[in-house]
Amino acid sequence: MVAKISSPTKPRLGCGFLVASAVVTCVFLAINGLIVMNLVNAVLPTLPSDMRDHRVAQGIVFLGPLALLVVEWWVFDVAMDWLRPIDDAGKGNGRT
After folding, report:
1. For helices 54-83 and 15-43, angle between their N-to-C axes, nearest 10 degrees
2. Using an 8 Å Cβ cutoff, are 44 and 52 in contact?
């Protein structure tokens, strides 16, 4: 049998990774902004008149995409850890 030699995984560092992360973040923010704006515009007219405060709606429109962005990057990080687990063998970290 031929032993399969696994190449070490490259760390996600460098200018290319930073540029790609910035582009993906901008795309996520644009999509999240559209989603949250549509949700606010759909829900706001159905609320009672005393709950239709435009300051609250503006806060949700501002903070909603940021909260969704945190969740999306967390899901991405968990998926990357699940798909490419870190191999501690042979790294000299003292574990046996």
Report:
1. 140
2. yes
What is the distance between the alpha carbons of residues 20 and 28, in angstroms, rounded to a whole number?
A: 12
- Say which residue, 71 or 87, is predicted with more confidence: 71
Angstrom CA distances, 87 to 2, 13, 17, 47, 74, stand at 21, 18, 21, 53, 21
pTM recorded for the entire structure: 0.70
CA separation for the pair 94, 48 (Å, rounded)? 63
CA gap 60, 65 in Å, rounded: 8
Q: How far is Cα 48 from Cα 22, in angstroms, rounded to an integer? A: 40
The residue type of 64 is G
Confidence band of 85 (pLDDT split at 50, 70, 90)? low
